[in-house]
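Two records follow; treat each independently.
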Amino acid sequence: MESNQKSGDGLTGMQKEAALRALIQRTGYQLLQENGQRRYGGPPPGWEGPPPERGSEIFVGKLPRDLFEDELVPHCEKFGKIFEVRMMMDFNGNNRGYAFVTFYNKNEAKTAMKQLNNYEIRNGRLLGVCASVDNCRLFVGGIPKSKKREEILMEMKKVTDGVLEVIVYPSAADKTKNRGFAFVEYDSHRAAAMARRKLLPGRILLWGHAIAVDWAEPEVEVDEDTMATVKILYVRNLMLATTEETIEKEFNSAVERVKKIRDYAFVHFTQREDAISAMDALNGKV
């Protein structure tokens, strides 16, 4: 039954529905409600190829509970093309105070984030906008230390969908063995979330072993200006017996200092160009 009660922007329920219909008619996007959220777009009309790159999604919080896509979308469109809006919904038909907006690329998302954070979307109501943590990586512990990366990748692809990559670190004491855990990268946050649910302890054994599964810490996005000043290289997979002097000699005289910790080290250079040259020359060298 349609409600005629007025919302915070002065529109009745029937008027809000009409406003949503007008938005869909204007843009050609679909509006679909599923699993406690309402999706606008994703993909938009005419979209071909994979979804936008990681970093293209922003979190929009502090939404008035009676604000919907017809109000939010026009504000977001000012800063770039929208791939998708996911608005979290309550059973009573109101939003839950936040939404996720994905743009065509991360530059548009970055601009929208800066412009919309603390934006007064209604009288006295300021938005809280930040980068979305689109985590696609799981930590999987309890893996037999004798298993190779290729074996772990094959096994994870058997029991879960959407696996892209497996990251395995060798043991500091014996490089032929792993450390008993791996990081598994999926093609989407949804795929990672489904895999995490499926792999919860007690549900699946890998090679007859119980496993521990949790979200991996998401990688921190570093802006290009900051990266342009970095003059330190991280070097891993070193032998325990390898000394700082040996590492410094292996690189070159442009090294300022070396700090080694167990089987990894940080190599400081005087110039960023020297660090990049050393990385290109020595990355993957045995």
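The next record belongs to a different protein.
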Amino acid sequence: MRAEVIAVGTELLLGDIPNTNAQTIGRELARIGVDCHVHTAVGDNVERIAEAISAALARADAAIITGGLGPTQDDVTREAIALATGDRLVVDPALVVELEAKFARFGRPMAQINLRQTERPERARSVANPLGTAPGVIAEHDGGVIYAIPGVPSEMIAMLQASVLPDLARRAGATSSIVTRETRVGGMTESAVAEALGPMWERLGPGDVTIAFLAGKGEVRVRLTAKARSEAAASSRLDEVEGEVRAVIGPAVVGGGEETAELVIGRLLDERGSPWCTRPIRRRRCSASRRR
């Protein structure tokens, strides 16, 4: 199964806030074995959001939208889903009762504009929000499914875990898992690492394990991604391929995962009983540099 993530909010396009929701959703989709090839950010505009939804469903089985479900005039995700699906917005009486009860529990008066949050596309169903006032939406359209959840990270995570991921897993049928792992390389350029692993790249092709190269901070990270029926099976396959990577790169491998070059050097010095320091002390000076 394939899903795409659509983050709604002009503030994202202006760089006012980072799109951390897409990062979280991408990681959770990988955990349940759902492929995610495209992330989209779109401003608070009904037509452009609707276009993004239609484009996503043309490429994938599901579109997960975050943001635009609040009560204000610029929260237009509900309208965009209705436009994309050819549906009309209706007020859900059950949501009205639930929203009024929430404000009563908060001990605050409810503004009339909050009733916008009780609207949904007529053929869609609502998703309960245990933390806030904005219900989510699940709408089926043209063989695909649209999920809309709030952009507030805490609410997004709660609804993603409780409603979206279980529904996606049910629709996907057979479960799988996507696992990633990194091998850190020092003293070699990105192009040299890619050239050394070229034969392995060609042999693996678009199979169950893929390779990517990420250069920065004086090192090259070789990221391996495997997809299998279970996390254990994917991890076992990564063990095999990572072993090959380490054999090809040799002593230039300085660590894996969160094990940085500095940690490896410190551990090796400790094992040998060698003194080491990380800053100048009087006339005695120790320093280390990392080359890309």
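Discussion point: The chain has two domains: 3-172, 177-271. How would you locate this feature using only the token line?
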